[in-house]
Design a protein that fits this description.
Length: about 220
């Protein structure tokens, strides 16, 4: 696992804020194999009026939580702040924090059972509704992602109309002036499939979409 996660929060002051004199960002986290819980601690001083010489202290404790798609090894987990910016609007401060996480995933041990089919078994056709064994339908799915993004497949993938034995997927980052129609046209996919697969109604610049494409 290696990812950068954007975070945005609106913080309200008791009075108007004309100028942020000083500001600092700290964090505290608790991490286990399945989730990350923590707080961003934003503190500093500000002026209520432009000509004021007095400053006021402020401090906000902002909680955040991340559910991990796959279990990770706790001793390999690393957390860092990648970027921190803020804007002031009257009595409100809008903070934007990009934070990163990396860790090694827990490897799953696969126990494969080998069944030997009897060679001397004679199978007769079913007659008059007697019980018989039906062959199992094997379905395969394959998901391709980039190095820094994890995608969890959903029931929507199974509902896509396809004649292929299995499908592969890629990640598309929405660019300026792109629309749902242009993305569907360039990738030769149906708009309804794209909406169901990503559970969206609209897109914005920078959104990450799962795009299916068929194996030849």
């Amino acid at each position: 696992m290696n990812c950068i996660i954007p975070f945005e929060k609106r913080l309200k002051f008791e009075g108007n804020v004309k100028e942020i004199v000083s500001i600092s960002l700290e964090h505290e986290i608790t991490q286990n194999s399945d989730e990350v819980l923590g707080n961003f601690i934003i503190s500093g001083t500000y002026k209520e009026h432009e000509l004021s010489v007095n400053t006021e202290d402020f401090k906000f404790v902002v909680p955040f939580a991340v559910d991990l798609e796959k279990p990770v090894q706790k001793d390999t987990f690393e957390f860092w702040i990648d970027n921190f910016t803020y804007d002031i609007n009257d009595n409100e401060m809008i903070v934007k924090i990009d934070y990163g996480m990396t860790a090694e995933e827990v490897k799953e041990e696969k126990n494969e059972e080998v069944r030997e089919e009897p060679t001397d078994l004679i199978v007769t056709p079913e007659i008059d509704g007697e019980e018989h064994e039906e062959p199992l339908n094997e379905e395969r799915e394959s998901v391709i992602v980039n190095d820094t993004t994890e995608i969890k497949t959903s029931d929507a993938i199974a509902n896509l109309e396809t004649e292929d034995d299995y499908m592969t997927f890629k990640i598309h980052v929405v660019k300026e002036e792109e629309t749902l129609e242009s993305i569907c046209q360039s990738n030769n996919i149906i708009k309804d499939d794209l909406l169901k697969l990503n559970d969206i109604n609209d897109i914005n610049i920078g959104d990450k979409l799962i795009i299916p494409y068929h194996n030849e």
